[in-house]
Amino acid sequence: MKIKFHIDEHLPEEKAEFWLRKMTERIRQITEDLTREKDFVWCYQGENVFSINFSDIYLIQVENEKTYVYTETENYLYKGRLYQIQQLLPSDFVMASRSALVNYHKLDHLQILNDGNVDAILKNNLTVQISRRKIKTLKEVLGL
User: Is the pTM of this model over 0.85?
Assistant: First the structure.
């Protein structure tokens, strides 16, 4: 695929055009990422509210019916359900299980356990078990 950029500081509005033989899932994801208006989510830590950039998120996980957002060193509470935050996220996030989303750019490595299960070890040393049903999707995203 050929890609061409024309950069003009004086454009009133940015636009992108695609000339495709067919629409693929990858192009659909890129289109969604380009048209996404926000690149952050509001989360709570105690009484304080913070905007957390999607690129800073390592893991989003449901524990005891609460949705937690993990960054490199902090964790926050998201006051919503996992499916609600998933709708806001770019395509960098992959379902690890029914209760966890992982930013695949923050993966350090995958650990294959003796019982055939797979754990994702993130760059901040968090460990998330990948459900058997989600392993294939994760491998496809990672190109394995």
Answer: no
